[in-house]
Task: structure prediction
Amino acid sequence: MTEGSGPTTARRLLALAAERPRAIATLEKRHGIWHPVTWADHAARVREAASGLATLGVGRGDRVAVIADNGPAWRIAELAAHCLGAAVVGIDPASTDEAVLRALDLGEARVAVAGDEAAVDQLARIAGRLAAPPHVVAWSAWSELIAAGRRDADARPGWLDGEIAAGSAEEVAVLCAASETDESGRARLTHRELFALAAQLQRVDPSGGRREVALVVAMPMAWIGEQMTSVAYALAHGTTVAFPEDAATTHADLREIGPDLVLGPPRLWEALRATVERRIADAGWLGRRTLAWALGVGAAVAEHRARGASPGPRLAAAHRIADALALGAVRDQLGLSRTRRGYATGAPPPEVARFFHAIGVELVAVEAAR
Result:
């Protein structure tokens, strides 16, 4: 296997670190503050983690399970495994013991990275039911793994670059759940297939892969949709990925980041619409009437566009007024001022889709992006 065998996530990461070292790779919110990490720093952290995983015997063809909430540490662990030619078995931390057992049995993981004590306890609880229990590494012990990796890397200069260069685009990169609610099986995606998903998303997304796009992670990275966006798409286009501090802060984080691309389950879009409905209920008579009129105009324009027709001069003029008076403000309140197309991981209720189309955000079921 040679470096000319096609793209891998590890090689793409190193290319971004070399081409755009000071550009922002990730934004992580901790204690209410966004912390940026450049591509150069992100790559350095991945290399350290890869060296650490190597001290546990992880190598080409192995599997590394990750059971954790979304965050930069997940992507670091995943890309570190890829540097070594290993694949990642993604597991949602909300999974039942039986689902975790199936995932570990299917993936035959050598190492399991646990995001918190609950995950550590769960892995300990089911260890006796596994033919070959994985070595468990908790986030809390990550610094010790990194330190061991640094010592090993110092003793073998250049070895990791050789491993990365030897990677093949045909190697399995991830074993991920096909949907958020069905973890009974795992989709096996090679590096080539992962980047192919990103290319399909780009073809239908109006952002066109602009480098300054910011994604907000709204799905478990154990699911194929988040792998497509937060890993493959982000690496393919040098896209910044913003990781909310907590699922409960996602709405506020959307407003602060104002991303071009948002992927989330139908419940995320339903919740966003509900926030607008609550504000409408609290508004005065004039505000309610104005927004109702603006939404009606926006819906009419959306219907014309869905038929491939252009709104007439009167409707177009009314739409400009509606957007200036209300629709633009609604998008801004939701953090969607730069979002022209949103993605739902399942078919959203018709009334939810109509609402977003009316405010100028085309909401598409993720299947349309595949």
